[in-house]
Amino acid sequence: MTAATANTDSLSWYEASARQRIDALVDPGSFVEFIGPEQREMSPHLAIFDLPEQFDDGIVIGRGRLDSSPVFVAAQEGRFMGGAFGEVHGAKLTGLLRAARTLRQDVLILFDTGGVRLQEANAGELAIAEIMRAIVEARRAGVNVIGVIGGRAGCYGGGSLIAGTCSRLIVSEQGRISVSGPEVIETNKGIEEFDSRDRALVWRTMGGKHRYLIGGADAFVDDEAQAVRQAAIDALEVTRGYGVANLEAEQSRLERRLQRFGAARDAVDVWQALGIDKPTDIPALPTDAFLAAANNRENADDAR
Amino acid sequence: METLSFRLSASTRAGGTRMQAIVGVVASGNLEVLLERAAPADSCMIDITTAAHGFGAVWEAVVRDFVDRRPAGGLRISINDGGARPDTVALRLAQGVRKIEEPER
Description:
Chain A: It comes from Bradyrhizobium macuxiense. Chain A: Keywords: Transferase. Chain A: One of its GO terms (cellular component) is acetyl-CoA carboxylase complex. The complex is a heterodimer of chains A (about 300) and B (about 100). Chain A starts with 17 loop residues before the first helix and ends in an 11-residue tail after the last helix. In chain A, about 40% of the residues lie in helices and about 15% in strands. The N terminus of chain A is likely disordered. By secondary structure, chain A is an alpha/beta fold. Chain A is globular and about 55 Å long. In chain A, helix 2 runs parallel beside helix 3 and helix 3 packs parallel to helix 4. In chain A, about 50% of the residues are buried. In chain A, helix 2 links the parallel strand 3 and strand 4. The longest helix of chain B has 16 residues. Chain B has one domain. At the A-B interface, loops of A face strand 3 and strand 5 of B.
């Protein structure tokens, strides 16, 4: 199958379900699911809390083709329990990553998660650690692990830590990446520190544009499945190594970044320090104008 | 959680050749419907797990109406419900039989 046969229908990544995202991302008809819903591998914990289960435990994994090249794909369903990681949900992703390492196959992770499920917190936290290790081991073996962030739930908590270990991150304006979510910060530090209901503040602090500008993501795309697909094809063109040199380079960059922007009180101050002409215009800029304005952005070195 | 089970006779066999289809997600006011070709051609089995207790009579009315109106013969339908309204349930069931009819690629 070639790119010419790709699904060309317009689809908002933000609005789409996990299964719709996979269908729009890979070459039509190429996706084969692993441990599908018919196997009913569900959470062993939710019933204890009398909570509804989902047949795929909120994550779809499998293999497909992207512009004819074989890839593994995992997609979180952000509407089921906020896309949060539980024992089975996490184990499915860990298994996919270990298979990717063994088979030398690139992986796309479509994040849509608030972090770890509180009802299975220990299992979920362990899953986060296992997934991060599996990504590092796969990358050490020469496998690319590409993250896509543009869903309703964003990419928070343990999900953001996993994203940090990926080779490349593709983000849309709607995507948000942060360890602590807006409500968590407000609860712990007070509304003067962070007003979680101030959507403009949330997006300019954690949103796709800011993350792209400070090197927290590597590609910025429209909220459009075909734009994500093209960015994923581009991201997989180069195999990116991973070793101590990457980490040392990134550590130095982060130290410089802290010196450069550490005193900033707001994202707009950071954008000003980046040398952006009219920093207050950034949130309203359409993608093309934004990418042009982002010319001097911080650039992550395959780690972040 | 409450579980409900219905085994209904169905006059029309579900179309298409796909072995299974899934629609919807488990969220507040929403549900997922998994359809599998795993019942005798003249019957439809529906198993429901729901977070909303005490609505057995409403479920029965919705699934009977579904089997009367749609080609559901031969299907085993499994539902995880997050408290969806009857109209949402009817919509998902209709989407489900439509999806299992889709030609395979």
